[in-house]
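Q: Could you fold this chain for me?
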Amino acid sequence: MIGIVSGALFIAVGLVFMLTDATSALGGILGATDQFRLENWLRRVGDAVPDLVMIALAAVVLGLIAWRWLSRPKRPSGEDQEC
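A: Sure. Below is the predicted structure, expressed as structure tokens.
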């Protein structure tokens, strides 16, 4: 029964999107010119950062995540199930 209801809601949302042009009528935060300027500025900033810096940053972040995950306290086997 839940599958039928969720399927009907999915079809209804799809029909609403098709009949109302989805979100194309919504405005954005920035106009087209401002968005173009922002994208160009971000591209210039991105071009100024060497690839090795980004690789090193990604390695540090992944290392910190792994360290945090491996150093968390172990739970007793009986406490890992939720009630």
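A (continued): The mean pLDDT is 86.
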